[in-house]
Amino acid sequence: MKSVELNQLIEENYQKIFLLALKMLKNYEDAEDATQDIFLKVYENISSFRQESKFTTWVYRIALNHIYYMNNQKNKELKQFPKAHDVRTEMNANPSSVLQEKELFESLEKVINSLSPRQKEVFIMRYYNQLPFKKIAQILKKSLGTVKSNYFFAMQKIKKDLQNQNLIEFQE
Amino acid sequence: MKCIDKNILLDYLNNELSSRKKKQITSHLSKCEHCREELKEWKNILDITQEFVDQDVKNNHVPPHAHITQRFDNLPQKQERPFWIRSWAKPVLATVAVLFMTLMIYFLSPKTVSESKENYYLIDNVTYTETVPLSDGYLDDLETMYLQEIYENEKLTLDILYGDWQYYEEVLDNLDQDELQKLIDKMYDNSIT
Fold first, then answer.
1. What would the pLDDT profile of B132-173 be if each residue is shown by its tens digit?
2. Which residue has the higher pLDDT, B117 or A107?
3. DSSP string, chain B
4. CATH architecture of A84-164
């Protein structure tokens, strides 16, 4: 692969990989370092890249491996976030719309961070990277059904959490 | 028709269904109030999530990537791997190694068959021994020897049978025509073999 082509491919995938690293590592500097290292690995191993899979699939695989490696290296456990019922006490009964939105987003961030690693990576690839489920399945080497059920459980968790906090309306 | 599974509802919202299935769901939604509400809820959740993600992406400044590509330009060009590491070379090298080992084992292993053999002959009740060197043609030699022995024994019996001329003449005198013919035939047969 010519270096011009490679640079273009890196340019296309850079932002998405950075967001993936940022969301998984939860630290801006770490994400920056990780993204650099990931693309360095991509550059060094471009000769071993087989055209069997698409370039983006390959890059995402390298990225996820590296992110897990970094997480293990620094022994960064998922931070324990206060559970839903703890947050509920802080809830404003009748907030203004701006406040409510802020609260909603804070709550969403907490739920997303409390997802299991597999659910989280599917969620990030779906929402932050806007990848179709088929592609996510290819990257994770899982079946489409598995990926969709990961996504479903993540969304279920988000829905349940938001409803528990009365942050959105629901029937019953 | 029973209510739609939540999984399928999410697939419907994510536009992951086949057009046929999609039609089925749409027709069910037009009839079922409960499913419509469920769909509305899920759509709300998905919209909020997407909104949150968009906001989050906007808030997070993505560092420029230019310095990375510049860094690559400064790196030395990667050299091609030496041939013994290349993927195709491994099976070929392995095959050659296995062949070489097999040949070495064949040539270096001690011969299990002894190089000479003692043969015993019993002639006139006296045993003669003979040491026969084993070679590739050993079996051929044995066969020749065996055939020669048979041939010579036959000759011996013929001599004994037909060597005594006095007896031979007496026998011939007492034979009738048929018997004579038989004997002649037999002689011819033996001499030919």
1. 666 656 667 667 777 777 666 666 556 555 565 566 667 677
2. A107
3. -PPPPHHHHHHHHTT-S-HHHHHHHHHHHHH-HHHHHHHHHHHHHHHHHHHHHHHHHHHSPPPPSHHHHHHHHHSPPPPPPPTTTSTTHHHHHHHHHHHHHHHHHHHHSPPSS-SEEEEEEEETTEEEEEEEE--TTHHHHHHHHHHHHHHHHHHHHHHHHHH-HHHHHHHHHH--HHHHHHHHHHHHHHHH-
4. Orthogonal Bundle (1.10)
Domain boundaries, chain A: 3-73, 84-164
Contact B116, B134 (CB under 8 A): yes
Size of interface A-B (CB pairs under 8 A): 86
CB contact under 8 A, B57 and A19: yes
Interchain proximity A152–B6, CB inside 8 Å = yes
How sure is the predictor about A129, in pLDDT bands with cuts at 50, 70 and 90?
Answer: confident
In chain B, where are the structural domains located?
Answer: 6-59, 116-192
Closest to A64 in 3D by CA, of A120, A133, A148, A108: A120
**Using alpha carbons only, what angle is made at residue A148 by residues B19 and A120, rounded to the nearest 5 degrees?**
140
CA distance A3 to chain B (A): 8
What count of Cα atoms within 13 Å lies in the side-chain half-sphere of residue B168? 10
Distance from the Cα of residue A141 to its chain's centroid: 17
Per-residue tokens: A103: 């609260």
CATH topology of domain A3-73: Rna Polymerase Sigma Factor; Chain: A (1.10.1740)
Q: Do B14 and A133 touch (CB under 8 A)?
A: yes
Which of B35, B61, B72 should be substituted to probe chain A, the one whose Cβ sees the most A Cβ atoms within 10 Å?
A: B72
